[in-house]
Every structure is written in C-alpha cells, then in structure tokens.
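To illustrate this point, what follows is a protein record of this kind.

___
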Amino acid sequence: MTDHLAADAANPSPSSARPRRALLLSLFAGFAVFAYVLDQLTKLWVTSSMVEGERIPVLPPLLHWYFIRNSGAAFSIGENVTWVFSIIMAGVSIAILLQVRKLGSAWWSLALGLLLGGALGNLTDRLFREPSFGMGHVVDFIQLPNFAIFNIADSAVVSAVAIICILTLKGIALDGSRHVAAAPKEAAQPKDTDGV
C-alpha cells in the first residue's frame, strides 16, 4: 500500500499535474505583467511630472529621483550601440517564453516572470521612445549613492537573476527537480585488518 502511494507521489497523474501547471503559468504571467506594468507606470509618472535632469530628494542622502535617459546599458556602457541592446532584450524575451513549458517550480515561475517583465519594460523603451525605433533611450530615475541610476525593470531583472542564482546553488532545476551532488568516493580502499 505504502509503495503504491509513494509511486503515485513520484509520478503524479496528468489530472493532478494540470492544475499545478496552470498555477505555475499563472504565477509566471502575473509576475511578468506586474513588473512590466509597474515599470511603465513609473516611467510615465517620471516623464510627465519631471524635467530631464531634475533631481528630487526622497530619503536623502540614500535615495533620490533623478530623471535621465540612458542609451546604453548599466553605468551607460555601450551608448553608441543601442540597437544591440534591443536585439539582446528581444532574444532574452523569446528564450524565456521557450522555457516556460518546462516550469515545475513556483520560485522559477517568479524568477522568469520578473525577468520577462523587466526585459520587456526596457525593450518597450528601446522600441518606442526617442530618438527612433529600436534606438530609444531608456528612462532611468532611481538614484542610490555610488551606483548606476536605474528603473523598476532593472530592479526586476536583478531580482530575477539573484533568485536564479540561489535556485541554482540549491540545486533546484527549472522543472522543480532537485539535483544532489554525488558523495565523493573514498580515495583508498580500507586496509586489510588481518595483520598481513
């Protein structure tokens, strides 16, 4: 009886797997939409209520709103190749969507949802903001001391990467399975205790 229950737990029936899969896909989609919408709403607020270059103290000296437009990546790297970042973000978004069918973990659903929402948030800026399609400058506004100015999409991507690193270190795969490191083999065989 217990062997039968253990086998059922190890191999869930398709009917019990469907609701779990739907839940994981809902989590993924929910976090992606949340990150994307929050990013776009905050950028809309910044562009409609602040002048570019304006700096507003929020929690001085730790936090300021500082409205800039960034044509490059973090720390303004690659300012002259904005189109490359558009292609990379589009590729990342497609790669995430191709991996969604393998989801078997709520934590991976959270991480990939945040990653997709963040990538699409900045990709929207690249595609539809000035100066031109695919070359748009990203709206950044969150300023911390001695750090790059960033936005909600950047925060979502960094949070996702941190979660993915933790999951990888804990050996939790995308499908929810756990990978346990094999025990090291003994370097030498036990010695014969017969006194020889």
